[in-house]
Amino acid sequence: MELSLEVLAFLLLVSGFAGFVDAISGGGGLIQLPALLLGMPTSEPATVLGTNKVPSFIGTTSAMINYLRRIKIDLRFTLLMAVPAFIGSMTGAHFASRIPKDAFRPIILFMLIAVAIYTFTKKDLGLVTNHRHTVKRRNLIAVLSGATIGFYDGIFGPGTGSFIALILVAVIGFAFLEATAMTKIVNWGTNLAAIITFQLTGHIIWAIGLALGAANLTGALLGVRVAVKGGSALIRKAFIAVVFLLILRLGYDIVKS
Q1: pLDDT at residue 194 above 70?
Q2: Which of 24, 50, 51, 220 could make a disulfide contact with 59, Cβ separation 3.0–4.6 Å?
Q3: Is the pLDDT confidence value at 246 over 80?
Q4: Mean pLDDT, the chain, as a whole number?
Q5: Confidence band (pLDDT; 50, 70, 90) for 65?
Q6: CA torsion 101→102→104→110, rounded to 10°?
Q7: Range of the domain at 133
């Protein structure tokens, strides 16, 4: 598939901004996926989803490495969430072309509205780490939520990082900065799993994906620096803004359909 220079320039700009936003608070797919749907109107939905995972994976890889250099995290707990998320994403990507995306939108919209209200009203949420539940229950939450969110990321995707961060902050009790670093590891795994599955079914246009990946990488590098400098307070504000935009986007999609 060939893109005009104008469309390619538009997609590169959007992908760079998506990488920046995703590195700070998650939700880069909210920006990047709709742009790809506009820029690749003749491609199958599964091909757009598969191609979208390439720049997402590259940007997330960069953000993950840079966060791990700067932030100390609970790696064992993160892997407890990341492994089932990887499996869930492979499963979701396998069914990506079989299940209508419209079935998810009303449920996700309701969840996002609840997330926005909860995060906005809890002024101290995610400012410091304050673990909830017993270790055994936290581990169970990590496994179940990882598998569920991974499945969603494989089959659809936008907002995955925000959902992971919400579980880590609101349910488990991590601070936003540490949760964001952990989120990148989980999201890295879900993106990799989806890429493997989409590649096996021939639903990735690598030339477009790699070009957008370079732009996403640039945005992600800048986003990590801003996030680490601003700390959990800045990430909380960015998180609320991204969730609000997700609500508007999904609400528009539901009304339009």
Answers
A1: yes
A2: 220
A3: no
A4: 85
A5: very high
A6: 150
A7: 5-256
